[in-house]
Amino acid sequence: MSDLRPNSDPQFLREQYIKSLDSAANPTQKARELADDLFSLDLTVYSSNYTFDSLIYSSMAKSILDGSVSLHPEQLQILNEITANDALIVSAPTSFGKTFCIFGYIAKARPQNIVLIVPTLALVDEYLKRVIKKYQTFFSQYKIHTHIDENRTYDFDQKNIFILTHDRVVQESTYAMIEKIDFLVIDEVYKLETDPSNDRVLVLNMAYYYLAQKAKKYVLLAPFIKSVENIEMLEKVPVFYNTLHSPVVNEVIPVNILRHNDRYPECQRLLSTLNPEDKTLIYFPTVTGIYKYVNEYIANEPLIDEIDVPTQYFLAWAREEIHEEWCVIKAMERGYLIHNGQIPMGTRMLQLDYYESIGAYNKLLCTSTLLEGVNTTAKNIIITKPSRMSDRNDNKDDFSAFDFFNLVGRTGRLNQHFIGNAYYIKAPSDPEYQRIDAIRSIKFEITDDSKDIDIQKGNIEKYPDVVAFLSHLGISIDEYHTHIGSRLRFETVKAIYLQYRSMRNRLLEELQRIIDIETHGRLDLVKILYEISEGKADAYKSNIINNLLNRNRPKIKTVVNEVNRYFSTRGIDNIISTTISMKSSYIEHRFYPRVLLIRYFLELSHAPAQLLDILESKITGAIEYLYFSTSKQKKMLIDLGIYERDVDTIVKIVGDDYNDTFELKERLQANLDKLQRISYISKYVIQSIL
């Protein structure tokens, strides 16, 4: 290997040595032979204790979290940077182990009050499992919170860990409740980059803005960032630490096809050539694409000869509770798993657990939920189309190089796969991707020329349209912050208001009709509210929402069958996935805040109180009841992945006066024998955290 040493790029050299280990008949013996070079390249995970220097280093670099793991030098450097600096941005590859460093720092420094902000509930679950199960010895002294309860007073003189999505710390009243922050971490921080079309970017920027002011120390995590522009404009200017160090190699292997329509057949061919024992991800831009692939290809494959008893229990529950035509069932019966945002949280957890375990399930069909920082093991990934949101036979929504290599980085895994292979199914018009293009500069919206950020800071004088809009509503900027806040961008608020103005009379007439006609249903009201909030009518989705607002908590299967009576042309797969998506995310996180905004507009126009009461009882109150908005204890169960139809049953057994997730875990463990009348998926979730 000596001929490689003159190259000045250390990561290039690392990759050559890692490839040498991968190709060796006996990688352990090869590592012994190359131990000096591996150590000099900071590949200490492979030089192990095979030289005296490596032995000394490994003994001194053992992780406080896991004595079997010795941190590599770059990880130690990051720990030193966290210790030395009050504000830090860390950019490192997906396989680097950034999150492991964060938990290692917490275990060593034991900061009093910790806030961990992640972009998705899937990452809340991943962090939560590390805290309450994997590393519970270090974290059992902390109170663990996955929500902010505005009706509760938190004790910041004790140890607290808040694990939250940015949506859950978005209002100023919530920020105020977090009185002290000793250590703040925001993951996937590239999402702070300006995107005027995305309300969630504004939410995350405002969360960073308010929380960073309170934090004694904060760390922002990201992959592939070479710099952050305007960093000097931040109140607490962070040190920027950038590394390309990776202990695994990610190889991109283009698989050329002649036309877009050949993507799925080529995917099938590729799968037939790969070792069935290797972990393989198959990426699709959309859920629709996954279900099309399952129905047209996987459904024609033979059933697994023997399905173990626990899996049979899950499949029986899924047929009864979700639907017998659900593609997750078809896939699992043939050895495939599915992960996307339109699958209930508990089922998503089960799919990932099955994939990570040793067994029959080594193939996982997924969407961009895998781009959100969820850690998986994969020898291979097949990228069926380089897009985040489109199955169309065009290139309008192609990945950026950043997204492409972020996905490629999901392959390879330390101590399991030296090399991860990314098979890129490439049509003639698909982009050529270069790794150098993935490393980019970003600019946080909080330091950018952003109208919405100025509005949130109260700087509206230079925006005549904002001043005029507030004047028209008859409210101050403070009232705007209190009642509208930062969940929606100004242009979104204005668009909803204009739609509301044009439909106000219809809305009032429909509310009055519900009062006047005792048997009059809610469907037309939902249709009007949906059209106001989205700017377009959609009888199909309105019908699904209406069925899901039934306070009796119908099964998903019941809703699907009811909707199918009127919209069978949509196809059962679409009805199932849309129903789950509406239930899992849309109603709570998009429809509900927009209806609250419409209600606020009604209040400002002095709508009769009895009409507002109808809106509350039929819509907002139903959502609050069904989504446990008034009970953070019940929300904790949902965050664990408990199926919502089991929540009330569990609370009757374990009570609802627990204050944090560790206490909830203890109660679940103490009452396991009494929790027999809940669904299989909820039993699975409970067992997975004990």
What is the overall number of helices? Answer: 31
Give a short account of the largest sheet: 7 strands, parallel
Spatial arrangement of strands, main beta sheet: 3-4-2-5-6-1-8
* Number of E-type strands: 15
- Spatial gap, N to C terminus: 48 Å
Report the average pLDDT across residues.
90
Fraction in helix: 40-55%
Label the structural class.
Answer: alpha/beta
- Rounded to an integer in angstroms, the radius of gyration calculated over CA atoms is 26 Å
Global morphology: globular
Weakly predicted, low-confidence segments: 1-6
Strand percentage lies at 5-15%
Q: What would a concise description of this structure say?
A:
The chain is an alpha/beta fold and 690 residues long.
Description of the molecule:
The chain contains 31 helices and 15 strands. The chain is of the alpha/beta class. The chain has a seven-stranded parallel β-sheet with strand order 3-4-2-5-6-1-8, with helices on both faces. The longest helix is centred in the last third of the chain and has 33 residues, at 572-604. It is globular. The two termini are 48 Å apart.
